[in-house]
Specification:
The protein is mainly α and about 140 residues long. It is about 90% helix and about 0% strand.
Amino acid sequence: MKDRFALLLASFWWGSLTTTGFLVVPMAFAKLGSPVVAGNFAGQLFAAQTWVALGCGIALLTYFRSKMVDGVAPAVRIAISLIVVALLLALMQEYAVSPRILARNNLKLWHAVGSGMYLAQWALTAVLLWRMAPSAQKRAA
């Protein structure tokens, strides 16, 4: 049961990143008319996404911590590394990059940095989800 819940958390994290970054925010810029209004809305969405990442990431770290009975298996070490790096990216994006974007401080540079960090977080959670899925499928069969 814990394995399925952890898989659900990983899929929720990746899915929320996918939906927010690749569907909702581009649609906001296309439909809201004003780039300032769309940008403010996108900033609020990305802030909420950071909280989703923190919730899912901390819960997943707790799950993988429970898997460390007799030492750390390489698969668990990799999963923990993916989660920690993705969480760090989310936090850096929210507290280091986002304020610079909101201040319109070298906007082009910081927007590119933030987009790259978001894409990296998305890729890390995709790898985590991919690595978790086969083991859950074997147990379900």
